[in-house]
Amino acid sequence: MAQQVSVQYVDDLDGSAASGPVDFSLDGKGYTIDLSDTNASKLREILTPFVTAARRPSGSAHRPIASPARSSGPSRSRDEVQAMRGWLRENGYTVKDRGRVPAEFVAAYQARTPAVAATDRPATRKSRKGRKVNNVEFSGAGTE
Predict the structure, then answer these.
(1) Which listed residue, of 24, 27, 59, 138, carries a Cα 20 to 30 Å from 96's Cα?
(2) Would you call 125 helix, strand, or coil by DSSP?
């Protein structure tokens, strides 16, 4: 079965048909607005004297727009991570020498909980995203 999908942009200012999104940034924050050709020209015309007088940030021709940091917690020093890996190994966890320590291992370290014997562990399998999960299916929005 053939399927055809049509996307129509609507001007965010006046509700008329828009030609597409216009991206811009101000004060380190990025914005996107759907505009008609007329309103896009007006925006560019208004910004022209400012863009002409402005200078680009040093360091590169294009600097990505700042986004909020994605962190699962506070960063740890190399010594802290080595101590954590040592404790985890001593208490029955299999931990790689490099890379990220799985969150469940970090939680076990923080709670100082020894590993469960391999025969007592629930069946472990990989999810679609390739992460190991214990009989829990992760899918949809908000799972990353």
Answers:
(1) 138
(2) strand
pLDDT averaged over every residue in the chain: 77
Rounded mean pLDDT, 87-113: 87
Token digits for 140?
Answer: 């949809």
What is the CA 26 to chain-centroid distance, rounded? Answer: 21
Dist CA 45 CA 37 (whole Å): 12
pLDDT of 89 > 60? The answer is yes
Mean pLDDT of 105-132: 63
Q: Which domains does the chain have, with CATH numbers?
A: 9-53 (3.30.60.230), 78-133 (no CATH)
Question: Sign of the CA dihedral 132, 117, 121, 123?
Answer: positive
The residues with which 35 forms a beta bridge, in sequence order, are 20
